[in-house]
Design brief:
The protein has 13 helices and eight strands. With 322 residues, it is α/β, with parallel strands linked by helices. It has a single domain (22-239, 250-321), classed as 3-Layer(aba) Sandwich (Rossmann fold), CATH 3.40.50. An eight-stranded mixed sheet has the order 1-2-4-3-5-6-7-8, with helices on both faces. Helix 2 packs across helix 13. The longest helix is centred in the C-terminal third of the chain and has 17 residues, at 221-237. It starts with a helix and ends with a helix.
Amino acid sequence: MAVASASIAQPAPAARYGARLEGFDYPHPVRTFAFASQDQPLEMAYLDVAPARPNGRTVVLLHGKNFCAATWGATIAALAGAGYRVIAPDQIGFCKSSKPPRYQYSFAQLAGNTHALLEQLGIERATIVGHSMGGMLAARYALQYPQATERLLLVNPIGLEDWNAEGVPWRSLDAWHAREQKTTFDSLRDYQRIVYYGGDWKPAYEQWVQMLGGMYAGDGGTAVAWSQALTSDMVFNQPVIYEFPRITAPTTLLIGQKDRTAIGKDLAPPDVAKRLGDYPALGKRAAAAIPGATLVEFEDLGHSPQVEAPARFNAALVSALE
């Protein structure tokens, strides 16, 4: 009995995946969009899920920095069940897509890549949903391609404050890289538990820690860390909030109130760090800045309401779409 109990108590082996997340299964077949960008061939992985009873509308799901298209699994099922065609790409530099070592990352470039994918698929107009970093990208997409944006939905987007303007010190690309190289399963789990989920943790969250941590731990970990450093630099230095008043698409913000995400908080002076990532205030401020925006608040949820309470979040999302 003692031997059996000890074996049960052992943690599961840490995952090891390839630089393009080889070995991690997605909930739907992964397709690849091959294109040229910045004088090099690239491949963008994506999911394209058709509904049983199409309503003629398409929803594009944009993942966050610590997430992938697979994280949208429950949301994809809910949207497809409601009649929507769903496109969920992995952005260049992330997950199952190419990770070029030399690439000028910008939200405008990622929006352009996404728009090229939709054009390739014959999709002229779609609803754009962005979570976390994907929220910054979704906002840029709506600004850059207003005629192609039917609606805009932002799910706990980061970038609702300009961290540099708030007093967070600048960090060099080399410093971002050094920080990324220290990433472990434990550091990912601790960060997400404290910042994303208000100190709570559920076993269901572990798969996403394994997904991300497995790329760092795998043979392609060097390429992953460098890509993450490049995109961290993009996130910190390319605020989009100043352009919120120019968004013309009907917009809904879905905000978990327990979220405290703020990029660079670890470098900020204590008085600055204390006030950063106040999503109850940030959500209201963003809704006031975007013309006609609607704010949906989840009092008991954090950074990833679609992960914490899928049924409740998906019901709110479909309601906003309709």
